[in-house]
Each structure stands twice: as structure tokens, then as C-alpha cells.
Amino acid sequence: MNFADLGLSEELLQAVEAAGYTEPTPIQAQAIPPVLMMKDLIGIAQTGTGKTASFVLPMIDILAHGRRRALMPRSLILEPTRELAAQVAENFEKYGKNHDLKMALLIGGVQMGDQVKALTEGVDVLIATPGRLMDLFERGKILLTGCELLVIDEADRMLDMGFIPDIENICSKLPTNRQTMLFSATMPPPIKKLSDRFLSNPKYIEVARPATANINIVQHKVAVTARKKREVLRHLLRTDNVSTAIVFCNRKTTVRELAKSLKGHGFGAGEIHGDMDQPARLAELDRFKSGDVNILVASDVAARGLDVKGVSHVFNFDTPWHPDDYVHRIGRTGRGGASGRAFTFVAPEDAEAIDNVEKLTGHKIPLFDLQTEEAEEAREEKPKARRASRETARDTDRREVPEKREVPEKREESARRAPRREARAPAEEPRRERRQRRSEAEPADDGWNGPVPEFLKVSALA
Ligand code: ADP
Ligand code: MG
User: Fold this and answer.
1) In CATH, what is the architecture of 217-376?
2) Which atom of ligand 1 is nearest to the CA of 24?
3) Could you report the per-residue pLDDT of 393-451, keeping only the tens digit for each?
4) Under a CB-based contact definition with an 8 Å cutoff, are residues 24 and 1 in contact?
5) What is the whole-number distance in angstroms between the Cα of residue 226 and the centre of ligand 1?
6) Mind telling me which SUPFAM superfamilies this protein's record contains (predicted)?
7) Are 123 and 103 in contact (CB under 8 A)?
8) Is this prediction's pTM over 0.85?
9) pLDDT digits 0-9 by tens, 313-364
10) Which residue has a Cα nearest atom 17 of ligand 1?
11) Which of these CATH numbers, 1.20.1260.10, 3.40.50.300, 1.10.260.40, 1.10.10.10, describes 3-206?
12) What's the CA-to-centroid distance between 44 and ligand 1, angstroms?
């Protein structure tokens, strides 16, 4: 299959070629033709399969003709987080460079002045997080009646973050004869309901079973206790040929503490979580992308969908509470056909959470054997021992080891035990956590006054 067979314009094909893509991904090959035919569409494909270009490319051609009008964006893309919104904006810039399209980005944590000015003048594409959009709508700064194309991206994530009521609200303000596209990695019942209500006769495309993990990712679970997690992590970072890694934690405080601890042990670690303002998050991400640090400790909300190339490892320092998050987290590695490794730390209190993950992905994750001696040697930091243990580690990871052998304890660190909690099914996630996720995604306007990064600026795409 070739991009040229999909019905895209010549200008667009040139931009795609310049971006270095030679072949459409399966979701792109299947989604682009119907979208160009102005059909509604539901696109289900796991993280990292190229869903963004499957709507951005046809949208550029659809929007190439037509007039901008003041206050009335011609199309709207909803994203759950600021980072994802910024990434979609980058995609528009990259592929739209041969077109005269204007875009605005409405996200929390970035001053709205320029964006509102752009909206007042008229934009072809508005990329927004739901909260920020509703905010502006209620203040009468925007009209949605001219918006004939809507994309609801990362719908399952929107659901996790409690955005569905906002999305319903937004949908009801758009013209009914619009074209609507919904993209998601999974299709839980509330998303099905949303699409039944707001899409009309959609084309349904599913390229892999929902929540099936990428086959290029070698997955392991590692039996740990809360107090040994850091030590086990350092051991694996040293012995598993890690070139770059994202380490996911369930809580923001864990992200901060762990990043600090890793730095204290001489690792090049950065951190990204929802308490950081937008410039700080982007700066930290840049440090990681540029290789300044090779380990990024992250919370789900801050890291979901981030497009970082060539991550060799994903560590789930905590088993995620939501099984969907597991798929998203490990999807940060093994991208674009490369292979990757994912380790999930499972403490006794995570039994139910890991069970839910295995039910969702439909496969038992093999247990990684942490050999006692290896851990001991790694701790003593003998370079020779480390080399030897790396070999053993590579060796053992090919077989499935049913029995867990624990790493000896190290008492001087991590004395504070993670608070004990029962493993919970997603529905029972504590209210406080859920609120936190939401506030991570849409922090109150923090009145940031710093320079606006280039790609966040409203720009003529030409
Ligand atoms: P998703 O939204 O499905 O999680 P993205 O749209 O973020 O995935 O794309 C994942 C990665 O794949 C990005 O790095 C993107 O640049 C890359 N990509 C997308 N389409 C192609 C393609 N046709 N060929 C090669 N790489 C691609
Ligand atoms: Mg995406």
C-alpha cells in the first residue's frame, strides 16, 4: 500500500514524503479514504499505530478549500491533554506546510491572548482540550456553529479523565450535519454510547483487537515489595541493556521522589507530571528527546501518548490501576516496528490490578526471574559482576520462571513504605485520584508568562 493510492493531493504527498514516511500504517490506509469521502468514522487501534496522521492528512485536503470566518473555527480536534494537543499541532505544521491553513491551540497553562486573537480573525483548525474550550465558549469568545468537522481523539483517555460530559456538551453545540471522527485504543461501553449518539452511520475500522499489546514488546512482570522497588529498578536499569527508559508511577509524589533518588544514584533522570507547568514539562521532555537524560520518570496523565522515538524500555514502577493504562504505557516502546522491553513491578497489593491487565490483554505476562546473587552484585557495584549479571539477565528473560525469588532487602533507602492499599478495580479508583487525574490534565490557568515555544504559536501553516 502506498500513500499515493489513498486519494490525497499532490502537495500533501510531498509533505508526507518530506516527513520521511514511505508507507501508510494500517489505520491510515483504512481510515484516510472514507474520511476524504466525508464519512463519519470510528478508528480503533492501539497506541503508536499512527492514528494522528490518519485524520490530520485527510483534514488538510478537506480544509484546503473554503473560507475562514471570524470566531468560527472550521474544524475542531479534541485532545485529552495539553501534550497531545501540542503534538497534533506539530503534525499539522509538518504535513500542512504546503497549504495555507491557520490553526489555533487552546490548552491549559498557556496564555490565551494570541489564541483568542487568532480565533477572532478566523482559523481552519482548532485543537483544544475540552475544559479550556468550554471555558472560552461560555465567555462568548468562540462560536461552534461553523464547525463542520470534529475529531474526538484518544476517546478512552477522555473517559478516564472524566471529559465525556464536556464532550457531549460540545457535540450538541456543533452543527448536526458535520463530519465526526472518533479515535481510541479501546472501545469501552461509554465510548460506544457516545459514538452511537453523536456519530451518524460511521465507518468502523479496527486494526487490532482492542488493548492487544504490540507484539514487538517483550513484556515481563517482576515480583517486588514496595520497599524494594527502587533497588530492583536500579538493578534492571544497569543490567538490561537500557538505552532509554520511561518509568511510570501511579502518583505524582512517587514521580518526584523516584527521580530524585535515581539522580542521587548517578542516573540521568528527568521527571514529568501534572504538577509541572507547561514550559517545565516541555523543557523536561526536550531534555529526554535530545538525550540529555536517558530516563524519564512520568505520571500517566503527563506522559500519555507522548511521541518519543526509540525508547528501549518501559518500567511500570507501579502496576497501573486502570488496565487500559498498561497498554498505553508499554506502547511508548516498540514504536514503528522497533522492539522494546516492558517491565511491570507487581507488589502483593497489586494482585488484582495485574489480574485486570492480563484479562484485558488476554495474555499472561511472564514473570522475570530476579536472581538473588545478581541483585547483590549489582548493589555492590562491581563492574565485572555487573557484566556477568547482564548476560544472565538476558538469558533468563527468554524462559518463563514460575517462582519468584526475592532480592535481598536494602534497609537504608526507601524506608517509607508506599501507603498500603487494596488493589482496586478501575471503577473503585478513589475519588481523590480521579480528581487528581482530571486536575493534572486541565490545571487552572497558571498565568504563564514565559516565551511561547515555536510550535505552540498560532501560525500560518504555509
Ligand atoms: P497513535 O495516535 O496511534 O498513538 P501517533 O499518531 O502518535 O500514534 O504515531 C506514532 C508514531 O508513528 C509517531 O512517531 C509517528 O511519527 C509515526 N508514524 C505515523 N505514521 C507513520 C508512517 N506512515 N510511517 C512511519 N511512521 C509513522
Ligand atoms: Mg494518538
Assistant:
1) 3-Layer(aba) Sandwich (3.40)
2) 23
3) 433 333 333 333 333 333 333 333 333 333 334 444 444 444 444 444 433 332 233 33
4) yes
5) 35
6) P-loop containing nucleoside triphosphate hydrolases
7) yes
8) no
9) 999 999 998 887 888 888 888 776 677 899 999 999 999 999 988 887 778 8
10) 50
11) 3.40.50.300
12) 14
